[in-house]
Amino acid sequence: MTASNRPNLLYIHSDQHSPYVTGCYGDLLVETPNLDALAARGVVLDNVYCPSPICVPSRMSMLSGRYPHENQVWTNGHILDSGIPTMAHAMGAGGYRPVLIGRMHAIGPDQLHGYAERLVGDHGPNQLGGQGVDHGELSGTAGPDRISLKKSGHGQSAYQVHDEEVTAETVDYLNRLGAKKQAGQPPEPFSLSVGFMLPHQPFVARREDYAHYYDRITPPRTNESFSDALHPYMKWWREACGIEAVTEGETRRARAAYWALTARMDILIGQILTALRENDLEENTLIVYSSDHGEQVGEHGLWWKQTFYEDSVKVPAVLSWPGHLPEGIRSDRVISSLDLNATMLDALTCPPLLHSRGRSLLPLLTKPDQTDWDDVAFSEFCQDKAGGGGPFPEQSVIQRMIRRGPWKLNYYHGYPCQLFNLEEDPRETMDRATDPACLTIIEDLKAELFNGWDPQQVAERMVALRQDRDILAAWGKHVQPPDSIRWNLKPEMDYLDENQMKG
Predict the structure, then answer these.
(1) In the chain, where are the structural domains located?
(2) How far apart, in whole angstroms, are the C-alpha atoms of residue 458 and residue 399?
(3) What digits encode the pLDDT tens for the residues 183-205?
(4) pLDDT digits (tens, 9 = 90+) for 17-42
(5) What's CA 49's distance to the chain center, in Å?
(6) Which CATH superfamily is domain 3-496 in?
(7) What is the pLDDT of residues 280-296, one digit of tens each?
(8) DSSP characters for 4-64?
């Protein structure tokens, strides 16, 4: 394949987007015409699972193609080893000059991890112990805490301001490529990753967007009242976060804002796709849209992410590549986000990451009847108090999930498991873990879940990483090294309007 006909890549990665709040995934309320149009021109994947239902571990796994226990990034405070090659490294090795605009959420001195250039960084400090971010009036609302529900409504989230700048930089980048092409100088094939913050909380959207959903917003589909009948870990989690009972007003405001933020993100994506098309760059470009994890928005009485329920651990994934992928189809096969990593490298004919767990989807999507596919995906959630956000105990929370075929087993170290048959029970309301008829299923799934993964070893390694982080954080606090790539979030960017709408 010559340089002139090698494909381009446009990879758009959002933050905390539930697939269930997208038109092409069946939501009748949210307006996502640009993602829906992309889906009509490509492939929608219905069962994609993130490697971890929290930001940094999911993103570092997505970059490296390795699960958290393999790259030892379990929490938002863990640092990906710069010696681990990423898909950006592989793209560079394959002849591309990979560029990232926006969100990566990597901690540590390496803010590129294989990207040749990065425009618009993250809002947080590069280093542990670095100068933290001030969310002004919305302080505390970005983490798993009841305050994010209390301080919800219309106003402005700095994350939207960030994404507007990311969009402007991306459109400018594509315009420059288009101008070069118009001048008779066809640009080299590009690999462009775009990282959004939306629709991550704060649950605050600008009034015009918010008002569009406030009166029409629907309640959660799967109610689960707080009681002793809850799974014991979920009971502890809801108590720790202060969400034993959430008011109707909080639920309505937070959900209306989330739908509004998702719709606004779709508008920004539309601006990027328009620039791609108007600069005559669409024809040979693989477009991939996905997210790092979902958002529960009140389902099962839960908010944010941090669990293995479908709303949290499943992510949207839409792929479009004219002439190479079929149009307007869906796949219900069980897929890991890591498979998207391998797919992009395969499409760009770049060297594979030899230690990656990802599997290219190209054979499955182009020749499904001729392709064997193992319907399995894993996710991990391992946290501790030093991990950066959340009411976690000093001793680690160690959890892992396996989805195989219709079955999903959630393992909680020190607690009972959960087992769901997602074909019969897609909203996960019937835990089958104590069903005698499922004993063999549980044994088989546990054997696969523990193969190469030891919760005790994970706990021991996390203790060692905490000790290392103490030194790194104290160094960062004292030295305050300059941030090489950082977006300047100002406290006045985050606010709630004084007069909130009343239902």
Answers:
(1) 3-496
(2) 10
(3) 998 889 999 999 999 999 999 99
(4) 999 999 999 999 999 999 999 999 99
(5) 10
(6) Alkaline Phosphatase, subunit A (3.40.720.10)
(7) 999 999 999 999 999 99
(8) GGSPEEEEEEEES--TTSSGGGT-SSS--HHHHHHHHTSEEEEEEE-SSSSHHHHHHHHHH
